[in-house]
């Protein structure tokens, strides 16, 4: 577990080294940080993550001309990607390294282009457990990385490129269909009335989780393996209070914006709404006995926007203070401490089977 804990102070050190009054380069910080994360991911052994060994087996079967069934038919992007990797290397570790590099590059680019505070966003990518998630379901996390970049393209009115990126994400993992809703959210001019209507709609949808689950497992047979309950609810149930605090923080920003105390751009509001969907459904589903593995995987597409939401929250709340820099620092440190607790708790329960960490050459 030690390497996962060391990552966080190292990220802070990289920030101090690359973002100071003598040398200030956001690009350098992001490149070094995600090179580090990519290196740790790329050289992990195939027991670090419950799905890694099976992905390596699929890769070997792919380049040797075996039948890949649903994967070949429904995940054309990943199939072609792994075939390309196979032209350069026929070792199982090649696909792990390639996927790690791709995810690190996509997430790093997303944070560099979108985040108001790159240190906090990078820290949160780790402390909110997304980096750990990327060590397990690599195919889906590539899709998630593409979907969040499609959001970036849509916000900046690059609609065709956004749709093509979403289509590419779907070719890696069909759960990326969630990206359609994210792109729709990006095109709405949000206000408190629309936010309230959305809340009612989400509560109605929450009552239909069985139908959503049955749709995915009956129409997309690839995901029938997620037809089991998560076995992590007892550990994560201890953290529901923290998610409720996240929910309250979102309502606080919405009310402040309505009362003209702060100003949210449409891009900021879109990020808030996307993250709100993830947090609300997490409170409703993630901590009760009805939480399916599939629902947790779908929520990752929304919850990852927390890496952009919290910098917005910090920026807007600190703007109300007489001492904005001090307030901003206090909020950032508080968010880091709270999310570190959730991170440590998740590591302690060994979510996704990533503990202990070993390199592939230690076997």
Secondary-structure blueprint:
Blueprint: H1 2-18, H2 26-42, H3 52-63, H4 70-74, H5 76-88, H6 93-114, H7 118-127, H8 130-134, H9 138-155, H10 159-170, H11 178-186, H12 192-206, H13 209-219, H14 233-236, H15 240-258, H16 266-286, H17 293-303, H18 306-318, H19 324-348
Helix pairs in contact: 1-2, 1-7, 2-6, 3-5, 6-9, 7-18, 7-19, 9-10, 9-11, 15-16, 16-17, 16-18, 18-19
Task: Note down, in words, how this protein is organized.
Helix content is 71%, strand content 0%. With 363 residues, the chain is mostly helical. It has a domain of 133 residues. About 3% of the residues have low confidence.
Largest sheet: none
Order of helices and strands: HHHHHHHHHHHHHHHHHHH
Query: Percentage of helical residues?
Result: over 70%
Q: Total number of helical segments? A: 19
| Beta-strand content | under 5%
Strand tally: 0
Shape: globular
Structural category: mainly alpha
Terminal CA distance reads 18 Å
Mean pLDDT across all amino acids? 88
Q: What is the radius of gyration?
A: 20 Å
Quick structural overview:
The chain is mostly helical and 363 residues long.
Task: Tag the structure with descriptive keywords.
globular, mainly alpha, 363 residues
